[in-house]
Amino acid sequence: MDRTFDELVAEAASEPVEGWDFSWLDGRATEERPSWGYARLLGERMARASATLDIQTGGGEVLAGVLTKPPLAVATEGWPPNVAKATALLHPLGVVVVADDDDDPPLPFADAAFDLVTSRHPVRAHWTEISRVLAPGGTYLSQEVGPSSVFELSEFFLGPQPQEAHLSRHPDHAVAAATAAGLDVVDVRLERLRMEFRDVGAVVYFLRKVIWIVPGFTVGAHRDRLRELHDLIQTNGPFVAHSSRFLIEARKP
Length: 253
What we know:
10 helices, alpha/beta, eight-stranded mixed β-sheet
């Protein structure tokens, strides 16, 4: 028997959302993956590096999956629950985790300290700081959230968003900022990827975890709209949205 709206919402509202592991959504939501394979690229770059920095590492899940790590590997994270989770996961693998509020540069490292800097889905890339801590000849590799990502879900709850919101986080802005910081951009790619949410609980969990999709989201404040979404999924099938991702790689001369 299908579970009720109240059962689905209550379950998802009580689930912990620390870290960056989305396995709770297995069978309940899907998202296509970018063709370039960020985890594979990260592993290739780290295998050749001697000192690396992973910025905004989250719970450390992506970095933990890299099989060959350099002699010196450091990660930063600013959200206290994720700092604890990343520390527990990465310290046994030889990675030092530094608690750092990335919204408040500078990075707590010396100039030219790393030959590889990485970041997956940073909230914001501080290009001047990235350039500063990179050694000459060093590389920055990042997969970022692109423009209009999951806007179908955002606009379901918030209504139509202004044009400037759709254009924010465009890779052209990242290329311009990287160049202004003195880096040479050697690769940039953008893809839109299909997502499906198969029940309203999956939406609740996703919005609690990815807090910028619907800023200020709570079950209480959005319950009426959640019920409408539940009815829509029951009638028409999965709610379809599209994530947006771009890859950028830059080198310091």
